[in-house]
TrEMBL record:
SUPFAM superfamilies: NAD(P)-binding Rossmann-fold domains. Keywords: Membrane, Oxidoreductase, Transmembrane, Transmembrane helix. The chain crosses the membrane at residues 12-33. This is Steroid dehydrogenase kik-i.
Length: 248
């Protein structure tokens, strides 16, 4: 192949290739060292605070996180819209974990209300708690960027999952790259214990095979990836419309 390249371009191209290879090699070394550092210095969840607050906790990932976190013996404060579901979940958690030494409390709240004054009821319940971790598991966004919280000794982690077996995704069976909600929850808890070693680790995908999947996506040319994604989404839409027509 080199014989087809003009002699004047051979050395520059080799140098460019060497720089690119060195960059990737250094990134791999950095990633390995960072993983080792996170595992060695992983924190107990109670070191952040005694209580973990979980919103959107009565189904899917939020529910699996609650059932996994109770094994860490942290206090749980559960928030959801359905009081009956919260009460039933609390009873089931205590029955399944009879050696649990923490406390479980809950509050009903509908995040679709859109009024900040409606948060006062929750504020009164949690202001006396030693809250170490807040897991925001409801689909609510903000009209402005999140403020920098490091100066207040608050770490922010944005976990980015790909497909998971939940009612929301409508995927019923796990596969290589599609874990159950329980498997994903265990990975998310490990990620919480590791903390944020760098600012770039704020946004991450806790599940290892999801990270592999993202790396594979990034290796594909953008035009090809966009085309494949569009075809996949169109196929999903067609299947959904077909189900709607059958229902009618």
């Amino acid at each position: 192949m080199i014989s087809f390249i003009p002699p004047l371009l051979v050395k520059p191209l080799l140098y460019i290739g060497l720089v690119v290879a060195l960059k990737h090699a250094l990134y791999i070394v950095y990633w390995v060292l960072n993983c080792l550092k996170c595992k060695i210095f992983a924190r107990r969840l109670r070191s952040y605070g005694d209580t973990v607050i979980i919103t959107g906790c009565t189904d899917g990932i939020g529910k699996s996180l609650a059932y996994s976190l109770i094994r860490e013996n942290v206090n749980l404060f559960l928030i959801s819209r359905n009081e009956d579901a919260l009460k039933s979940m609390k009873e089931d958690l205590l029955v399944r974990n009879r050696n649990y030494k923490g406390q479980i409390d809950y509050a009903t709240f509908d995040y679709n209300t859109g009024s900040f004054t409606s948060y006062r009821g929750i504020q009164e319940k949690i202001e006396k708690l030693d809250v170490g971790i807040l897991i925001n598991n409801v689909g609510v966004s903000y009209p402005h960027p999140l403020i920098e919280l490091r100066e207040h000794n608050i770490q922010v982690q944005c976990h980015v999952p790909l497909f998971i077996v939940t009612k929301l995704s409508k995927i019923r069976k796990p596969s290589t790259f599609v874990p159950t909600a329980d498997a994903y929850a265990k990975s998310a808890i490990k990620r919480m214990k590791q903390g944020n070693s760098t600012s770039s680790s704020v946004i991450s995908s806790p599940y290892f095979l999801h990270r592999v999947q993202i790396c594979l996506y990034n290796a594909v040319p953008k035009l090809l990836f966009d085309t494949m994604s569009l075809m996949t989404l169109k196929a999903v839409r067609q299947r959904a419309l077909k189900k709607v027509r059958k229902g009618d």
